[in-house]
Design brief:
Blueprint lengths: L2 E2 L9 E2 L13 E8 L4 H12 L2 E6 L2 E7 L2 E7 L19 H11 L5 E5 L2 E2 L4 H13 L6 E2 L2 E2 L2 E5 L6 H20 L5 H4 L8 H8 L7 H11 L7 E2 L1 H7 L1 H4 L13 E5 L12 H14 L2 H12 L10
Helix pairs in contact: 1-3, 4-10, 4-11
Length: about 325
C-alpha cells in the first residue's frame, strides 16, 4: 500500500489517497485540528516557535498565531468562541470587551480544551502534525481522549479531488458503508463511543446507499439538509454546502457553521498526552474511505452488502 513517507522510517506511515491532486492539478491539502488540555495557549505557541521558528502573534489573550514556521502557519487557541472578541459572532450573546473576554477565558481555562490548528498542509507533510503534537506534549500538554468535561477532538479538513456531485456522492456512500467500522476501530469501549457524533439517520443512509442515488448538486444539498441540519455528524458536509450556496443554506442551519471548501471529518478522541500517539491511524482510516469511493465496482458491491444488513470492512474492499 502506497504511503506518504515521513522523514524518519521509525515514524508512523501515512497512507496516500488514490487521487492526490485536485481537478486543476494542484496537490490536495488537509488542515488538522487537535484538542488538548493542561498547557496554556501562550506557552503552547512559544513552545512551537522554539521548535519550528516563526513569528508569534497575539490575536487576543486566548488565541495565538505562529506564522511562517518550519511546518507552516499554526494557531493555538482556547476552544470557545466567546473569548475571542475580534471575530465575527456566530451566537446571539452580547459581544464582550477584550478585558471581559480575557477574564472569561481565564475562568473557563480549567474546563475548556485548547486547540492546535494547522494551515492546510500538503498530504506528504501530514507527519509534521505529529512533530507539533510531540513538542506540545514535551511542554506539558495533556489529554488521553476523554476529560471529566467531554471528549478531546481530532478533526481533518480535507480538500476534495473535485467538487462535482458525483465525487461527493461516491465519498459519502463509501463513508456510510464503512462508518460502523470507523466508529469501532479507534474507540472500541462503550464509554468512548458515547462521545462520537451521532450517526446519520437510518432512512438517509438507506437513501444514499441506493444504487440509483446519483443526485445533482441541488438535490444532494436538499437531501442532506432535510436529515442533517446539524454539524454533529462524523463527516460534516455543512461547511462545504454553505460554501457553495451561503444564502440558501445558512437560514436552515441549527448550528454555527463556517463555510469552507472542504470535508470536515470529526473524530472524538485526540490523545496528545499519550506518548507515541499519532494522527496517522485516523488519517489512514479516512484513506480507506477514499479508496473505496474511487473503485466503482467495489463501491456498488459494498453498498448492496450494507443495504442487506451485513457489515462491510475496509480490509474486504
Amino acid at each position: 500500500m502506497e504511503s506518504l513517507a515521513p522523514s524518519d522510517d521509525r515514524e508512523p506511515r501515512f497512507h496516500a489517497p488514490p487521487v492526490p491532486l485536485t481537478a486543476d492539478g494542484r496537490p490536495r491539502r488537509v488542515g488538522v485540528e487537535v484538542e488538548f488540555i493542561g498547557l496554556p495557549v501562550r506557552a503552547a505557541a512559544d513552545a512551537l516557535a522554539a521548535a519550528f521558528g516563526g513569528l508569534v502573534r497575539e490575536e487576543d489573550a486566548h488565541a495565538w498565531h505562529l506564522e511562517a514556521s518550519a511546518i507552516g502557519d499554526l494557531t493555538v487557541e482556547l476552544d470557545v468562541q466567546h473569548v475571542h472578541p475580534h471575530r465575527a459572532q456566530q451566537h446571539p450573546l452580547p459581544r464582550l470587551s477584550p478585558p471581559a473576554s480575557a477574564r472569561l477565558g481565564a475562568a473557563l481555562s480549567p474546563f475548556v480544551p485548547r486547540e492546535l490548528i494547522t494551515a492546510p498542509l500538503r498530504l506528504d507533510a501530514l507527519h509534521r502534525v505529529d512533530h507539533a503534537v510531540g513538542v506540545l506534549r514535551e511542554a506539558g500538554a495533556r489529554g488521553r481522549g476523554i476529560t471529566p468535561f467531554g471528549a478531546l477532538g481530532l478533526h481533518f479538513n480535507i480538500a476534495l479531488p473535485d467538487l462535482g456531485p458525483h465525487t461527493l456522492a461516491c465519498l459519502l456512500k463509501a463513508f456510510l458503508v464503512l462508518e460502523p467500522q470507523l466508529r469501532d476501530d479507534p474507540h472500541p469501549d462503550v464509554v468512548a463511543r458515547l462521545f462520537a457524533p451521532p450517526a446519520y439517520p437510518p432512512a438517509y443512509v438507506e437513501k444514499v446507499l441506493s444504487p440509483d442515488y446519483w443526485p445533482d448538486e441541488e438535490a444532494f444539498a436538499e437531501d442532506y439538509l432535510a436529515d442533517n441540519p446539524t454539524r454533529r455528524r462524523s463527516l460534516d458536509l455543512l461547511p462545504l454546502l454553505l460554501h457553495r450556496d451561503p444564502e440558501g443554506i445558512a437560514p436552515r442551519l441549527t448550528d454555527k457553521v463556517g463555510k469552507r471548501e472542504v470535508l470536515h471529518y470529526r473524530l472524538p478522541l485526540a490523545c496528545v498526552g499519550e506518548p507515541g500517539w499519532s494522527v496517522a491511524a485516523d488519517w489512514n482510516r479516512w484513506v480507506a474511505v477514499e479508496r473505496l469511493a474511487a473503485d466503482p465496482a467495489a463501491l456498488d458491491a459494498a453498498c448492496r452488502t450494507a443495504l442487506a444488513g451485513r457489515p462491510v470492512l475496509a480490509a474486504d474492499v
